[in-house]
Each structure stands twice: as C-alpha cells, then as structure tokens.
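>> received
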Amino acid sequence: IRCQTPCDSAANDLSSGLVESLMALVDKFGNEHPGTIIHQHSYLTYRKLSDADNPMLAHDKQSILYQWTWRVQDELKFVAENFVNVLQGHIDELNLFASMGDVPMEAAATGPTFLRRALRLTLANELPKHDLNMLPVSFGILAFRLRSLRMIIFPMLGIIISLSVAYGIIYFVSLRTAVLSHTMMMMIMLCAALSLDYSLFTLTRYSEERASGHEVDEAVKTSIVQSGHIIALSGCVLMIAYGAMLTMPGSFKSFCVGACTMIGTAILVQLTFVPALMAVCPCLGPEKASGVEADEDP
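>> returned
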C-alpha cells in the first residue's frame, strides 16, 4: 500500500483501515479452510516499534507492506484461485475509495499467486485477440495461393471442428488431472497454424486435379493420396517432439497432452472431414477445366 503522491508517511489511519480490511478477508478464508493460512503480518504487527525499525515500512515512508503466507492443497486449488479473484476485486474497490482521501493511497497485490493470475489473464485475453487479428491475413494468403475465396470455407470449418473435438477430449482429461490454462491457449495457436498449413497441401492438390480435368471424386482421392502421407508424417513428427514434454513435472505434462491431442485431431479432420466436405459440396471448390482431357495417372 503506497501513497499516490508524496506524503509524510504511508502509515496512517487510511492505510491501517485498508490493511485491516484485507486481513479480515484472509482470516475468513483461513477459518473456512483450517490449516491454509500459515502466517500474516503487516506494519500494524510491529506498531510498537519506531518507524525506523519497522520492517514493513519503506525507508522513504511512502509505502507499507502487508504479507501473508499460505499452504493450499490440490483439492483447494480452485477455491484458492476464486479467493484470489475475490481479493483482487476487493482491492480494486478499496483503491476507488482510497484515491479520494486527503492523502490518496493505492493498494497493489504481488507475489507468486497474483503473478500467475496476471499471466493467466494476459494469455487468455491477448493471445486469442492476436490470433484473431492475424487470421484474416493468413486466410488472405491462402486464398491468394488457391485463387479462390470459396475454398477458404474448408479450413475455417476444419478449425471449428478441430477445436471442438480437441477441447472435448481435454475436458475429460481435466477430470482426472490438472490442465494448465496456458494449454488451452497453445491449442488455439496450434489449431490455426496446422489447419491452414495442412489445408494448403490438400486444397492446392485438389485445385490442380480439377484444373487437369478430373472429376470431383477422383480429385479428392488424388489429393488425399498425394498429400495425406505428408500431413500424417508432419503431424507424427510434431507429436513426437511435444511428447518429450511428458518428462516435465506435475501439471506441465498437460502441455504435452493438449498439443498431441490438437495435432492428432487436426490430422484426422484434415484427412476425413475436409475431403468429405469437398466431395459433398463441390460448389465450394474450383470448376472442372473444360476442354482438358484428364490424365490417367495422378
């Protein structure tokens, strides 16, 4: 807790009230979950000492520290995370009130728990936004290479199906083991990258076959035969590389599970759903070249 503007001392009635308010929340959590709160202390704990000897008052007297340590078991992990969110919301409300006093004060939370929360929120907010901002560019490059805007529907639907299936699988995994929120963000990036990359192989070959005069069914078969082994091999190499993360401790293994699930799903969707969609909806693909005799061999 610090002064927003230079002040004589951050140890005043307002900061004391802020500390007591925060301590009350922590005490409540400790009473509801015995054994979690190990120790808490603040400037008020050492109020009998002089300001020069008080370890919770900064040397320039512009800030004071309130600190608590806790031990949270795995079964209380989500309860603790919810408490951190409640505590941060309470701090935000206190800041609105404290900023209007004669000596404006500001409270800020730090430490491993709050840093993890901030990192998780940043990843959850920023990565999808940047991915969405770059998707039009990626689709534009793919459309330019394929020379068809209609064919962009194939990778778009592939991304939706891949994410839905992979997230469904990870949901059941999360019921048995911890899955980091960062894993979900990584799966989104992998899905977009792999779906566009694999679609480039498949749809380019499909367009070439149609330009050579082949019917839809023959063009689809050839595109899968010629491009399918490349997609499968590329995906297997990626899964082997991400499989090395199984040696990581604890919940970090969820990176491996999430990545391999997403890669495997992207491969299967690209080799099953997308070809089926091309065969069922030939209107979305290129027209058969007129006046061109199809070759016997692809």
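>> The chain has a mean pLDDT of 86.
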